[in-house]
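User: Predict the structure for this protein chain, please.
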Amino acid sequence: MELIRETYKDKMIVYGIYNNITNQIYIGSSIEPSTRVYNHFISSRDSNVYLQSSIKTYGLSSFTFVVFSVLEVSNDLTKRRNLRFGAPNFSWAVGP
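Assistant: Here is the predicted structure, written as structure tokens:
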């Protein structure tokens, strides 16, 4: 978790969580990568229901975390976006 926090501090990522058994991938994005990854893998709070069901069924060791894209995020941009649109929630699941 610390590695993700340090590597992606003040950055937005587009990421995938790949199920190595079913070949399905969950694709998401976050402006707070360490919090989002923690929610998916540790607490399951504010995480996708289908992803959590899959992790419960196949076990965490059956998944690979992949970062597709990294974007710099300025504090000003983040504040303006949150005021105008609210916190982001643009995650979706893609199957084979």
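The chain has a mean pLDDT of 80.
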